[in-house]
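Project channel, design review

CF: Before we commit to the Odoribacter laneus YIT 12061 constructs, I'd like one complete example in the thread so the newer folks can see what an input/output pair looks like. Taking histidine kinase.
RD: sounds good, go ahead.
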Amino acid sequence: MKKFLLLIYISMGSFSFLFGGDKVEGIHYRDSLQKVIELLPADSTRLSYLERMAYCHQYPPLDKFFAASLWEESIRQENAYYENLGAYYMATCFDKRHDPDSLSYWVDKLKEMALQRGTYDYYLEQKAALSRAQASKRKVEKAIYTAKDVLEEAIRYRSHNGEIAAYNSLACAYSVSSRRSESLEILIKAHKRFTERTKLSLRVDILSRIAGNYGNIGQDSAKMPYLQEMTEVLQEVMTKEPEAKNNWTNMAIDCQVKYIMHFLNKKNFSQVQEHIEKAKALLAPHVDPVFWLNVQLMQLQYFSQTREYDKSIALIDEVTPVILKNYVYTFGMLMSYKAMTQKDKGDIEGAITTLRYLIHTQDSLNNAFSASQLDQVKEVYHIDELLLEKQKISNTNLIRILSVLAILFVLIFFFYIYTRSLSRKIVQSEKAAAEAAARSEANNRAKERLRTEISHDIRISLNAVVGFAELLMEVDADFDKESKVEYGKIIQENAEQLLDYVNNILELSRLESGKIKYQQENCDLMEMCREAIDRARQFEKNIVQPFLQTTIQEISITTDRRNFLALLRSLIIFKKESNTDIYRTIIHIEQHEAEKKLVFRVINTPLAKDFQGNRTTLVRNEINSHLIHYFGGTYEVYPNDSEAPTLIFTYPLS
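CF: and here is what came back for histidine kinase:
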């Protein structure tokens, strides 16, 4: 009976599961801590807190949450120190889950950081953990190779903890391959190399393995010193770091289980009961279910040896739902043990009922067990890998042919896309060239016409000035005072008009020749608009009433402030004595976020109203257009717009 229960205990040692209720509790606790994290400043304070949480919660499901949070936050803050720690804790998560593929990914990350920072302990410890994960998958030779490689690196880089971790993993691989004497020899060697720098987790793990090895070969006297040392280390660390106590609970339970097995062999039932109670006191929601199950199996052995049949049956009924759900392959043995216990008790009917229940469910149990066995056999002998390799070999030629055809198809497709794109670009280039030539020709014609018209307008103004001046200078002319005032006014107006005209032409000429350079600076657009409008309203002879329409409160543009103010004033200041009509001009400004530009729509501006009839207006539009085009905008005049003569120009945002 004792051997029967021991067989169950050993078979359970390589598997684990999670309770649904524990997950819910862990989620609530995690969410409460997440709120605390979000309130911390996004600097080293938050990183330090996350690192402490990752250290204190190295058990599922919280371990992965805090490790991932630390890793992601360190990436965001570009903090190499905490990035290294985050990768280490992520690797620890997958070490506990015996996931060599994911663990290998984080080992590679740690190696990169080790080469950059020159700190190798974290990298080598997790690479050693990769060896243990390989051993748990029965990839023994690969595990031994990895452990020896870690040992060589640890010696080369003088990493003490890397060396101890390598010995631990090498002993684990030897133990899995039934080389127990070599495993024990390596563990003893590692124990002798313990120093103050040796990590406590490595100490406890190695002490547990030594005690287990001596226990398996029946050398209890040799086992006890290591078991007692393991107990002392666990008590010390759990006392010094109460906030990280849960990290060590699994190993503390393992220590108590070893004591239970020792005292069971000695038939010292009082000590057995004492250590069972200690183990049960350590059980908590965060404990790995394997250790919970080990405690129950130890109790079954205790009840079996003390002939406490009722307690044994009650305990079997308690653990059966868990066994049936997660360890179906041991359910048959457990039910058989229950039936034998009932028989020993004298409950024949109860034993028969248990066996009938077992037979009734045997088919489904066998199917589940067969599937589980098949998966294990496949994993041990790498059958899936062999089948996959065979399939790859048989399909190599087909894959090569399909690959060549796919490459040819892709090349043809890209060549077709390229030729279409090239043809489209050629057409667009030809169209753009034609449009540019047409615009250039139109501009040349317009400039030639402008020069002719300018010459004509200058002569008209000069003739008026000269003619009325000569008239006033005639000696025998007899003019009354009003006539003299009128003639003087005509001379003054034509002279001012001529001066403005000439100044504008000279300014345009200097702009086009590049003699005038624009001064670029950041300017407040709305402030310039308000300044121009205030100036227009204060100008006595202005016949324009300007209004600003926009939802923009404040915005800056890069421009030449003096010239841009001159542009704005030219839109809303207009002096014309012969016309007493008042222009109601509206400056409408919109911001286009997608195109990153401002659109100015100036309705009923004199520069659009007199676009064809006034040469000064034409020159002013040329000057304005030159400024806008220089800074990357567009400038268009619509004298015949359906709403009112309108001028539209755009201006890019910085």
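RD: helpful, thanks. The radius of gyration is 46 Å.
CF: Confidence is low (pLDDT under 50) at residues 1-23, 376-387.
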